[in-house]
From TrEMBL:
Protein name: FAS1 domain-containing protein
Annotated region described as Disordered, given as residue ranges: 181-237
Comp. bias (Low complexity): 181-190
Domain of life where this protein originates: Eukaryota
Naturally occurring in which organism (per UniProt): Lolium multiflorum
Length: 265
């Protein structure tokens, strides 16, 4: 026996379920760069320095990727891990820029914050990057130093778009590695301790456990090659786990709706 209005209620519940919001799949910078075999080193260093996780946690981000040939100059400097992380952080803009937006800059230029500035380790206004369209249509990226453009920092030119997912993540290839004295300067002990605390909080491990796990893979250049593959796996797992709550809530709502429909009808 059907109750009055039961069919209408059932239809309404089905309509609600059909428009139930689900969590979008998190982007995974390691998976995006996996399609570019000539960017293997850049991808590996993002993972070994922990930047891959930071990128994957951001909803809106632009990564200025460098191919293996362009990474040679950075590799030759043998930077410690924290300085390497800061340099790579200059290549992560905390805003969305794709090929089209690069050629629509208001006034022909824009100053954009990076993960280096967002980390709190950049002094003053260091960590900002100026994007400017130059004569002939080329687009240049130049890091700032203490609020001014560093006269000694060469421009890094845009090469091509690698991946665009408006307005979540964009990966743009640039011709070389950007850097600055502020990024390569040694970190203060306080910032290092805060960084270690953040990492252990994310991973759910104690500081001693994390240090023991890192010790065999740390080298003078801070690359940590063995950790890269494991970090990539963790990044993929984190991306998959991040979508679970949306699917679980949808499943519970679907089962509840079916139960209500059965009772009413």
């Amino acid at each position: 026996m059907s109750l009055p209005g039961a069919n209408s209620l059932a239809v309404l519940l089905l309509l609600v379920l059909s428009t139930w919001p689900t969590c979008p799949a998190a982007h995974n910078i390691t998976a995006i760069l996996a399609a570019r075999h000539d960017m293997a080193e850049f991808s590996r260093l993002l993972t070994s320095t922990g930047l891959a996780d930071d990128i994957n946690e951001r909803n809106t981000i632009t990564v200025l990727a460098v191919d293996d040939a362009g990474m040679a100059a950075l590799r030759a400097r043998h930077l410690p891990r924290e300085a390497l992380r800061h340099v790579l952080s200059l290549h992560v803009l905390v805003d969305y820029y794709d090929r089209a937006k690069l050629h629509r800059l208001p006034g022909g230029s824009a100053d954009v914050s990076t993960l280096f500035q967002a980390s709190g380790d950049a002094p003053g206004s260091a960590g900002m990057v100026e994007i400017s369209e130059r004569r002939g249509g080329s687009v240049a990226f130049v890091p700032q130093e203490d609020g001014d453009h560093d006269a000694h920092a060469p421009a890094v030119l845009f090469v091509r778009s690698v991946h665009e997912a408006p307005y979540n993540i964009s990966v743009l290839q640039v011709g070389a590695v950007m850097s600055s004295p502020a990024a390569e300067a040694p970190s203060s002990p306080d910032s290092s301790r805060h960084r270690a605390a953040d990492v252990t909080h994310k991973n759910g491990t104690r500081p001693g456990d994390d240090a023991a796990a890192d010790a065999p893979s740390r080298g003078g250049d801070g690359e940590g090659g063995d950790r890269a593959d494991g970090g990539g796996d963790r990044a993929k797992k984190n991306g998959a786990i991040g979508t679970a709550p949306g699917w679980l809530s949808f499943a519970w709502a679907f089962l509840l709706a079916i139960k209500i429909i059965v009772v009413l009808v």
